[in-house]
Design brief:
Layout (H helix, E strand, L loop, with lengths): L8 E6 L22 E7 L3 E2 L5 E2 L8 E4 L5 E5 L2 E7 L3 E5 L12
Antiparallel strand pairs: 1-2, 1-7, 2-5, 3-4, 5-8, 6-7
């Protein structure tokens, strides 16, 4: 089954959170909070502006993002739990950090 979000919606796979506290105590599944970080699986084409032109989204498949704790709608697709959020509910894109700057170093 193919799944493509509409308009400015984004399909996100939550990243697994740590099951241990900083003191080494194992936290049971029922007491864990849902992670607020995830990886974009799929994104819609974008929203329309006042003139009817499509404004493309800032995020794309593969981006790691941070989103609001109570954002979106949980869905299950092919027995995988995912969340659909509006692009405006995404707070930040998490940079991978391995990039080198182009040009000469000063």
């Amino acid at each position: 089954m193919k799944f493509k979000p509409l308009h400015d919606r984004v399909l996100i796979r939550r990243l697994e959170s740590d099951e241990r506290s900083s003191g080494g105590i194992i936290i049971p599944d029922t007491a864990q909070e849902k992670p607020m970080q995830g990886e974009v699986v799929s994104a819609g084409p974008g929203s329309r502006d006042n003139d009817g032109n499509i404004v493309s989204l800032e995020v794309k498949a593969g981006d790691k993002v941070l989103f609001g704790k109570f954002s979106g709608t949980d869905v299950t697709i092919k027995s995988e739990e995912l969340v659909i959020v509006k692009e405006s509910d995404i707070l930040a894109v998490i940079a991978s950090g391995g990039r080198k700057a182009k040009g000469k170093a000063a």
